[in-house]
Amino acid sequence: MSEFKVLRGRTILVDVPVRKESSIQLSEKDEEHIMQETIKLWNKLNVYAVGDKVEDVKVGDKVYVRTSALNLETVERLEVGGTMKFVLSEMDVVIIW
Q1: Closest Cα partner for 32 from 62, 77, 83?
Q2: Which residues lie closer than 8 Å to 96 by C-beta, 6 or more apart?
Q3: Which of 12, 18, 42, 97 is buried most, with the most CB atoms less than 10 Å from its CB?
Q4: How many whole angstroms separate alpha carbon 93 and alpha carbon 47?
Q5: Closest Cα partner for 80 from 12, 10, 9?
Q6: What is the pLDDT of residues 54-81, one digit of tens each?
């Protein structure tokens, strides 16, 4: 599953949805703006890993996370297994599917 031993506390890692690549070259600022708009559409993020104190969320669950928690200026990002993950708090999860 993961390339680390333990995820601590009430932390969860969710997969960052992969956006289709555009053939048009965009500036970094435009890319960030498009990504911010795309984030608003994410409503079922896949849970990659859960911390040792997480109670309700399990690996493989689909979750809706508060949009404010996905702010690209503040959300922690971590590369695990060759793909990007968001590091979030269990408290940011609103719905579990």
Answers
A1: 77
A2: 56, 57, 61, 62, 63
A3: 12
A4: 11
A5: 12
A6: 999 999 999 999 988 988 789 999 999 8
Tokens of 62: 């689909």
Which domain range does residue 41 map to?
A: 11-18+26-96
**Measured distance CA(13)–CA(87) in Å, rounded:** 5
For residue 65, what are its two tokens?
Answer: 């996370």
List CB contacts of 41: < 8 A, sequence separation 6 or more: none
CATH number (domain holding residue 45)? 2.30.33
**Segment 24-45, tens digit of pLDDT:** 787 888 878 877 777 666 889 9
Q: DSSP secondary-structure letter at 94? A: E
**Domain count of the chain?**
1
pTM for this prediction: 0.78
